[in-house]
Amino acid sequence: MSDCLIIGGGVIGMMSARALAISGATVTLIEQRACGKESSWAGGGIISPLYPWMYSDVVNELSMASQAVYEELCATLFADTGIDTEYIRSGLLMMDEYDRYEAIDWMAVHKVNAEKHPQGALFTAVAQVRNPRLLKALKSDILKRGVEIVEFSKVEELIVEKDKVLGVKTEHKNYYGDNSIICGGAWSSALLDIKNEVYPVKGQMIVIKSKPGVLEHIVLDKGRYLIPRKDGRILIGSTTENVGFDRSLNKQVGVELLEFASSRFTALRGASIEHHWSGFRPASKSGVMIKKYEKLEGLYLNTGHLRNGLNMAPESAERLLALINHAN
Ligand SMILES: Cc1cc2nc3c(=O)[nH]c(=O)nc-3n(C[C@H](O)[C@H](O)[C@H](O)COP(=O)(O)OP(=O)(O)OC[C@H]3O[C@@H](n4cnc5c(N)ncnc54)[C@H](O)[C@@H]3O)c2cc1C
Asked: How confident is the model over 211-225, as a mean pLDDT?
């Protein structure tokens, strides 16, 4: 019996587990595959919404509060686990949209300055993290903090008695806890009668090998972006596709992403694709779902972060913690 059962070991589940464990709760996290292999792995790791003025206030609040703690969080994870998440404030060069009225208004309201750049506007404060490493660091950290991680165990259903969730049933065994928290990413709807409130939006991305310094900043143009990693690799993304849970890769998409990169930066002409992958962003009608599930006692959701789960994760975990503390 744990204080908290977390369903799903992506960035949201593991960050939630960390916040709860730090607060003194006993936590069991149950993951159907290995932790950190779905959307949180597939993402780019930009610690900001792409065009922030296109998002709701709540997404911006969660993002900004998370941005304020990310650097220190990554430093703490490095000190505690020895895993370098490669948090880098590489800045984001925006080549379009920055001069629209909404953008100028948003920057004034949020006191965000963009520097003039020959190719657009440079948002110097925007950072990136190497998300697969962040996930490894989080897993290592929560294990050290005493979180029990159960992998390769799919939660099949909730154990409910008199409108209270007592625990979860997996294919192997049952787990019991005072609070159950669904952090199941794009799969979160499956355990509840909220079909279609959380649903997958597929994204395809590629990575090419280049040299460190060829690109200095994250680059964004027409919804496509380039993310230069420390070792010279450059991620190029991404598509947004409403195709359900179809993981298939379209070669033409890879070619188009490569063309996007070389059309913006001649130094990238002739590069070849090192890897091409897809992932399922958890979309939600409300933009993000961090809430107590009112129909059942002891049940919470932290999901539906769509394109911003990596950047909103720290504050999402704090909000979840506050909700649970408030209810108990
Ligand atoms: C191509 C792409 C680029 C992206 N770029 C960025 C970016 O630059 N910045 C950013 O902030 N965000 C980005 N995102 C979005 C971000 O990756 C997601 O918002 C975030 O990873 C969601 O985290 P999660 O933990 O909710 O989901 P996931 O990482 O998908 O984790 C959910 C986990 O729950 C498990 N699970 C589900 N159901 C069950 C069950 N019944 N039992 C047990 N386990 C279960 C799954 O196996 C999975 O491991 C991107 C996404 C994609 C696809």
From this structure: 96
Model confidence pLDDT, tens digit, residues 55-100: 999 999 999 999 999 999 999 999 999 999 999 999 999 999 999 9
**249 C-alpha to ligand 1 centroid (Å):** 18
How much distance in Å is there from the Cα of 191 to the middle of ligand 1?
A: 17
Which 3-state string (H, E, C) describes the chain? CEEEEEECCCHHHHHHHHHHHHCCCCEEEECCCCCCCCHHHHCCCECCCCCHHHCCHHHHHHHHHHHHHHHHHHHHHHHHHCCCCCCECCCEEECCCCCCHHHHHHHHHHCCCCEEECCEEEECCCCECCHHHHHHHHHHHHHHCCCEEECCCCEEEEEEECCEEEEEEECCCEEEEEEEEECCHHHHHHHCCCECCEEEEEEEEEEEECCCCCCCCEEEECCEEEEECCCCEEEEECCCECCCCCCCCCHHHHHHHHHHHHHHCHHHCCCCEEEEEEEEEEEECCCCEEEECCCCECEEEEECCHHHHHHHHHHHHHHHHHHHHHHC
Mutate to test the pocket of ligand 1, among 48, 202, 310, 319 (most ligand atoms within 8 A of CB): 310
- Domain 2-327, CATH number (from 3.50.50.60, 3.10.180.10, 3.40.50.10940, 1.10.10.60): 3.50.50.60
